[in-house]
Specification:
By secondary structure, this protein is mostly helical. The chain has a domain at about 5-60. The chain is built from four helices and no strands. Helix 1 (about 15-25) packs across helix 2 (about 30-45).
Length: about 100
Amino acid sequence: MNEITSLTVKIPTELKEKLKAEAEEKSLSLSQLTAALLDEVLAGTAPGAADVDRTEYQDDLEESIEADSAADNSASSEPPLTAKELRGLRKLLRKKK
């Protein structure tokens, strides 16, 4: 039996919605449909699989990942609070009650 693992990918919202609709239409889970489509493409049996221009999609994907990474980095420019700082905040909050 095949071992099952999870895979997290970033795709455009519109593509995810198309996948969901297709999966529902075929009475499959999103995971089942995605695995089947990936298998077809990797095996070269998907319609037009040989003609797919991967460079355009790859460029869009890399730009999206870079934008997400930049947003994550700017949001986390301050270090997290220490345990001592958290205790101090809790004391302040209790005093206000």
